[in-house]
C-alpha cells in the first residue's frame, strides 16, 4: 500500500478520525482511531466539486452516513493543505 507521509486527524461527533492520502489519487483514506484502528472508508474525488464518502466498514455505515458532510468538509480542508504543500 503506497501512502504519503502526510497524515491529519479531526474530531467528528466524538470520534477521532485519521486522514491519510493515497498516492497518485485525489482521495483520503479515513481511519477510525482507537485501541484497534479500523478503516472507515475514503473520501474520493477531492479534486472536483463532487467529493464523496465511500464507506467500507459496514458496522459504522449508519454513523458515517449521518456524519458524511462533516467528514467530507474535514477531508476538503486537509486536501487543500496537502496540495498547497505540494504546490508550494
Characteristic key phrases:
88 residues; alpha+beta; 30% helix
List the helices and strands and how they pair.
Layout: E1 8-12, E2 15-21, E3 28-32, E4 38-44, E5 52-55, H1 61-66, H2 68-87
Antiparallel strand pairs: 1-2, 2-3, 3-4, 4-5
| Ends apart, CA distance between termini | 26 Å
Residue runs with pLDDT of under 50 for 5 or more positions: none
Main sheet makeup: 5 strands, antiparallel
What average pLDDT do the residues reach?
90
Count of β-strands: 5
- Secondary-structure element pattern, one letter each: EEEEEHH
Concise description?
With 88 residues, this protein is of the alpha+beta class. Helices cover 30% and strands 32% of the residues.
Question: Please, could you describe this protein's structure?
Answer:
The protein is 30% helix and 32% strand. The chain is of the alpha+beta class and 88 residues long. A hairpin with a 5-residue loop joins β3 and β4. The protein starts with 7 loop residues before the first strand and ends with a helix.
